[in-house]
User: Which sequence fits this backbone?
């Protein structure tokens, strides 16, 4: 099981909302309705708090409340399953694009959903997961995304990557 990630001011709000089921409610209670704003995909918690005129004490309290909510969630495994079909699709894409060391980026959006796209390289803070024994198949995702979807399965259907969340969540 993964350890719960620790939030800080520079994490994008979209990642926080995706990682924590109660984040939207907590943000709203503080007067931040950023999760419904069009800038939420790129705006950090620091940016949102600054725009709303929060003092340092309020920001620290908000981060503490969000971290408490994340720690209260059930732990999930620190891995993802990848079906053979998804693995083959990633290999084919990498060969076709001329970037065999590429992978699948799993990102969060402002509504707490997850998007998957073929990526040449991981983002700066991404975790890189390898699929099974084949270390050429890689998944790039943030610690917050892994905390939320760990143990899930990545599949492909009609050329689109799909995420099926695991029913087995450890308490």
Assistant:
């Amino acid at each position: 099981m993964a350890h719960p990630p620790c939030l800080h001011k520079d994490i994008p709000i979209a990642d926080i909302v995706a990682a924590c089921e109660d984040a939207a409610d907590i943000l709203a209670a503080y007067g931040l309705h950023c999760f419904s704003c069009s800038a939420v995909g790129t705006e950090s918690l620091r940016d949102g708090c600054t725009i709303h005129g929060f003092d340092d004490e309020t920001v620290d309290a908000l981060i503490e409340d969000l971290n408490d909510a994340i720690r209260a969630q059930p732990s999930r495994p620190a891995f993802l399953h990848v079906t053979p079909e998804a693995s083959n699709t990633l290999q084919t894409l990498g060969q076709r694009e001329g970037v065999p060391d590429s992978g699948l980026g799993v990102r969060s959006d402002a509504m707490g959903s997850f998007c998957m796209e073929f990526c040449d390289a991981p983002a700066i803070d991404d975790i890189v997961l390898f699929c099974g024994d084949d270390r050429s198949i890689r998944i790039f995702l943030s610690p917050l995304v892994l905390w939320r979807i760990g143990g899930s399965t990545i599949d492909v259907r009609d050329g689109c990557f799909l995420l099926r969340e695991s029913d087995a969540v450890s308490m």
Notes: The radius of gyration is 17 Å. The chain has a mean pLDDT of 80. The first helix runs from residue 13 to 19. Helices lie at 13-19, 23-29, 45-51, 56-72, 84-97, 143-149.
